[in-house]
What does this fold into?
Amino acid sequence: MWGCAHSMSGALWALSVQTFKVTLRSKWLLMFTIVFFFFAFNLPFVLLQLMHLLPGNYVSAFMATLINTSFALMPLLALPLGAVSIVEERESGALQYMLSTPISRGKFLAARALGLLLATTSIIALGFGSAALIEFRFTAGATGLLYVTLAACILNATMVGVSLVIATVSRRRLTAHSLAILIWFLLTYAAASALGQISVLSRAGEYGALLPWIFLNPVEVSRLVAVMQIPGSGIQDIGATGVAMQILFTNSALPVLYGVAAMWVGISLVAAFVIFTFQDIR
It folds into this structure.
């Protein structure tokens, strides 16, 4: 019994490691590592810093700009990769063969999720973390960038869960890729088009009406988690949604946002597991 359980755990770990290695070899991930590094390592800011031409609040201003630009692209890291992670094996017939072994569907999906999460998270940590050490070293700016990295990792975990939902419901790679791009568009640029309505509601004091825009968009939730922890950030940085969270939840705003982010991760993963468990894999 012990030997069987040990062999099963070894197989699951091997599958996770294989997913991790295959994902890391993707040129898509290499490109994102470079992009995230240069987003965080802003050369004009570095030059102005060396020339002592930056104002005292430049760290918070830079962090807010970094968050707004990089978080809009963040879902594109995990969504396309995770969306096809199972579809490719389904199309080739390898999935049906693999699930004919003693590995259950749940454990197979868990191994896939773990491998994807480790690979994509390492890319985020490498891109932002290395820039923090080089540009800010161990100053307050590095601490702020660590908060940004944490929020980015939370958003990435959510996108891994969402991508696995796409992977389990899709039968073809084209469908999976199309759904991944559509969801990215809805969560970023389509949501940004609603800023006019958000401003109107904010000016009218209808802060409760802004909660759906916040809670139903994990990109916005993660953005607020990051920017609200940056020292010196103000209303111009957190925006109308951040003001709404502070007014409605006061000192509990950050715990509420962390709770919503955790729910996004949990619900998306549970949904992927339920769909994958009861569907026909052929």
In short: The two ends are 31 Å apart (CA to CA).
